[in-house]
Design a protein that fits this description.
Elements (H helix, E strand, L loop, with lengths): L1 E7 L4 E7 L5 E5 L6 H10 L3 E6 L11 H8 L2 E5 L9 E3 L5 E3 L2 E7 L8 E5 L2 E5 L17 H10 L9 E4 L9 E2 H7 L9 H9 L9 H9 L26
Parallel strand pairs: 3-4, 4-5, 5-6, 10-11
Antiparallel strand pairs: 1-2, 2-3, 7-8, 8-9, 9-10, 11-12
Helix pairs in contact: 3-5
Length: about 250
């Protein structure tokens, strides 16, 4: 499998490029609007053809570029079937693999950050979206979040994967790129070790996090598979503007 990890700095989002060496088919997991041209260039530079975008959930901190990429190259939009969005081409369901040429991707329903959140298992790695982060997890205080569900999703499902499985999250805010199931299950400060369900519920209830600054624009935009609001306040325009430069060059 061809693999690239790409970082979008405005929302600290990781986008993952996966490709089949035999067929040249490629997918992007959690693509971000300001980086769509960079991502498409990465696909083309590898001699691949983008056939699918995959969003792990309806994001609250950025706008997906799924619709933009579909307009540009005809890629199909894969989103959790439970969200029932009209713009969906492929409704992801647990137990129904996504095929990318010879590469098999297995959607895993991991609710808690949002009610319809999915992780994607691909061979020896898992793309955990916002459910499991490196030394952390996504918040559970909006978009039908549920800390009890998140605890069961992570400890009952994700931590059930082989320990050597590589963990690639949708975000990191401290320059970290990858972890493993063994590491997170042992030392994740929120969900690892002997953390009990009740401990986790209390911890999440007392985080006292600020209201997400882009959520009121991001959620409706992402329910349309990636539509930027026509008018944004000056301090939010960077969420939709094309990236001036990228850490990847």
């Amino acid at each position: 499998m061809i693999f690239r990890q790409l970082f979008e700095p405005v929302s600290s989002t990781y986008t993952y490029l996966l490709g089949c060496e035999e067929t040249g088919e490629a997918a992007l997991i959690d693509p971000v609007m300001p980086a769509w041209q960079r991502d498409l260039k990465a696909v083309n530079d590898l001699g691949l053809r983008l056939v699918m975008t995959i969003d792990t959930h309806i994001h609250a901190d950025h706008i997906t570029s799924a619709s933009m990429l579909k307009r540009e190259v005809g890629s199909r939009i894969a989103i959790p079937a439970l969200d029932a969005l009209e713009c969906t081409d492929i409704g992801m369901e647990e137990g129904v693999p996504l095929q990318l040429g010879g590469v098999r991707l297995d959607p895993m329903h991991t609710p808690g950050h949002t009610d319809n959140h999915f992780a994607i298992v691909g061979g020896d790695r898992v793309f955990t979206g916002d459910a499991l982060l490196i030394d952390g997890c996504g918040r559970t205080d909006f978009q039908s979040g549920d800390s009890r569900l998140l605890y069961r999703s992570v400890r009952g499902k994700l931590f059930g994967l082989p320990g050597e499985t590589l963990v690639y999250p949708a975000h990191d805010y401290n320059g970290r790129w990858v972890s493993s199931i063994a590491q997170e299950s042992q030392r994740n400060p929120r969900l690892g070790g002997d953390r009990t369900l009740e401990d986790f519920v209390e911890l999440m209830a007392n985080l006292d996090l600020p209201y997400p600054k882009f959520i009121d624009h991001a959620v409706p935009g992402n329910r349309a598979c990636g539509v930027c609001p026509p008018e944004l306040p000056d301090h939010l325009r960077e969420y939709c503007q094309e990236m001036a430069e990228s850490p990847q060059g």
